[in-house]
Design a protein that fits this description.
By secondary structure, the chain is α+β, with helices and mostly antiparallel strands. It has one domain (24-147). Helices cover 21% and strands 51% of the residues. The chain has 3 helices and 10 strands. It has a 10-stranded antiparallel β-sheet. Strand 8 and strand 9 (118-129) form a beta hairpin. The longest helix is centred in the N-terminal third of the chain and has 20 residues, at 2-21. The radius of gyration is 21 Å and the shape is globular. The protein starts with a helix and ends with a helix.
Amino acid sequence: MLRKYFASIIFILTSVHLAFSQSHDDYLPAVLVNVNGDTIHGEIKVVRDDRFSKSIMFYRNGSDLQEKFSPKDIRYFRFEDQEYVSRNIDGKDYFVKRVIGGELSLYEYAFREKKGTKSEAAYRYFVDKQSTNEWVEISSKILKYLFLL
């Protein structure tokens, strides 16, 4: 009888420990720059591209407090080889992924689109000309033709 209770207590303690120790498993080292120009180092929660468009979850280095940032709070963030910047699309602010950087930069805006009873990932593409800060949407058909995707 005592052995049964002991095994149950060990199981509960192990489960609680695992639940708390895995809180950062789906996070990667990241850097963000807020609207004031301050650089903040920490870890970002990795999610689907279309979920990055509206907000990110972030732990600052040395903190156990998870913070939520929107495109109104951040100029850009990056992790691994990916960089997202805040841009206004159709009157709303979103994070868009920089696909190609340079004088002409290509950005991808990922979102969910309803198709009948399901929703699936959809994309819109934009080009930013650095010297004039011109922001223009290009169709995915033109993009496929240009890059033979």
